[in-house]
Amino acid sequence: MTILFSNQSIAVRLSAETVEEIVHRYRTGRSATSLAKELGVAPSALLNLMRERQVVIRKHGFTAERAAVLAREYEAPRDDRWA
């Protein structure tokens, strides 16, 4: 098996359209880890790409919408199946 290493930024290896799609998906809630896995790159490389494009990096993996869903689920009445 031959493993190829590249010192190029992932932005050089991807089309401008692909980069814009990745940025859009990150901004709409996809995690850097899941996007990086999909692209076959390291999460740190993907985050560097985002920073190069002045994308605000989330400190947490939840969007505000996802956090609201989790809060509602947490506060919902629980059944006894898990007791």
Summarize the structure.
This protein is mostly helical and 83 residues long. The chain is built from five helices and no strands.
Description:
It is built from 5 helices and no strands. It has one domain (10-77): Arc Repressor Mutant, subunit A (Orthogonal Bundle). By secondary structure, the protein is mostly helical. It is elongated, with a radius of gyration of 18 Å. The protein is 55% helix and 0% strand. The relative contact order is 0.12. Residues 1-5 have low confidence and may be disordered. The protein has helices at residues 10-13, 16-27, 32-39, 43-52, 64-75.
Q: What order do the SSEs take from the amino end to the carboxyl end, as H and E?
A: HHHHH
Number of discrete domains:
1
State the total count of DSSP E strands.
Answer: 0
The oligomeric status of these chains comes to single chain
Percent strand equals under 5%
List the uncertain runs.
1-5
Overall mean pLDDT? 82
Shape: elongated
Summarize the amount of helix as a percent range. 55-70%
Largest sheet report: none
Instruction: Report the total helices.
Output: 5
In CATH's first tier, which class applies? Mainly Alpha
CATH T-level fold name: Arc Repressor Mutant, subunit A
Report how far apart the termini are.
Answer: 50 Å
